[in-house]
Amino acid sequence: MLRVKHGSFDNLPILTKDEVFQILDKPMHQLELSSDYYKAVFHSLKYPGADTEEKLLQLLDSSIEDSCVCLAKRKAIEILARHGCKRAIPSIRGYLKSNDPYLVENAAWALQKLGCRETSSINLIAELLDNPNQNRRLLIQSLSGMQAVSVLDKIKNLLHDPSTSPGVRGAVIVAIKKLSGDSQYIKELAKFLLLPNQNTRQCAVNDIIEAGEISLLDLILKTPVAPSFRMRALDVLWPENCLKFNELELLRCLDDLILDNPEKLSLANDFLGSQEDSFYIDQFFSTDFRRAYTALKVISNRKVDEIWPILYPKLGDMRVDYGALYFLMILFRVKDRWNQEQLQEIRGIILHALGKSWPAMIKFRPAAILALSKLFPSSSEEFLPQWINQYSTSFWACRYAALMVIDRILGMGKNKSFVEYLLVTREDSNRFVRAKSEELLFKYHCE
Fold this sequence. Notes:
- By secondary structure, the chain is mainly alpha-helical.
- The chain has helices at residues 7-10, 17-25, 36-44, 50-61, 67-82, 89-94, 101-113, 119-128, 136-145, 152-157, 166-180, 188-192, 198-211, 217-220, 227-237, 250-259, 277-282, 289-299, 304-311, 315-318, 322-334, 340-353, 364-375, 377-387, 396-411, 419-425, 431-443; strands at residues 244-245, 248-249.
- Helix content is 60%, strand content 1%.
- It has a two-stranded antiparallel sheet with strand order 1-2.
- The chain is globular, with a radius of gyration of 25 Å.
């Protein structure tokens, strides 16, 4: 389904229900901005109900094909599905015949979200698989969600088409398993985890999750994608009330995931070739995590005095880049022998990463917690009451990282008063945080 970046609408004052309806009732020529319909539809998510559904259905039933209206219609289809509006199915089904492929994919997604099982809708979506301009991956996922066993053979045919991309092939493999129970192609997903294209690797992770294939979890945990993908895989696939599965130990998997050292990932040593250190540091900004992890692995083996003159001029840009900050936190933690002047600069950057101006679930915050505790232990101890509190620290990975800090403190035989924090976290809402807390209580004989 189309993912629209709507950060600009998040930052605007929330429209009231009346304001949403007033905009949607206006003819297009009376709008102040061409994006007003989309803005109104976006905010309609906050007002579920029959009257909201009616306004969105009126928009879908309009014949206006302006690009801005089409964008609003895509969002309206999504929101009607999220509201569970089954009476919207006929209108949404009509958009399977749209010339806009994004409207088509939103319609297909919405129909499966609404639990549609109509043969006519299933057949329409199946016919679209013949069109290479359509998002066939999403169409297959929709058919799978609609339990479309009747078109399974048509889906299977894509396995024999040499032009089928890994992303589409992965969706086919998952659909075959879900619709027929046939798992013979599942192991092929493991190969996709190692492919150069990041989107393909991410799709493979999601496909393995969707297939419920825990046998491939160890490979996912070694895949160079954003940590959020690996966290989700562990959360979804790991069995409840289980600390060990096959050769995997839950808490060691979690520790490695939070530390996220590149040595633990499947990286080609010669992937980036032989380059200047400035090139590797620039890869911290890359949106391709395979590139960034490979660069981090190389730079981590350099001496501090070699990398600092190259790193320092780039710190200003890194402070405002989510990805670069993440890899910078790991680099700060794994390197030793920073001098006092460097440590002063580093401390400011770490505290910046831990500041409240970032989203609560930002990926670099757990890494910043570990970096602060390694380089500035006394400072990190001051933050522990805040970090272990699930009401002030909503991201479970941050609370888990805080427990790793406590483990380090107690392991040095220091300050047994930190044990009381373990009694708090053993009641945490997250099962991984509870498991780590229980491990530490047992390890330090605190029961």
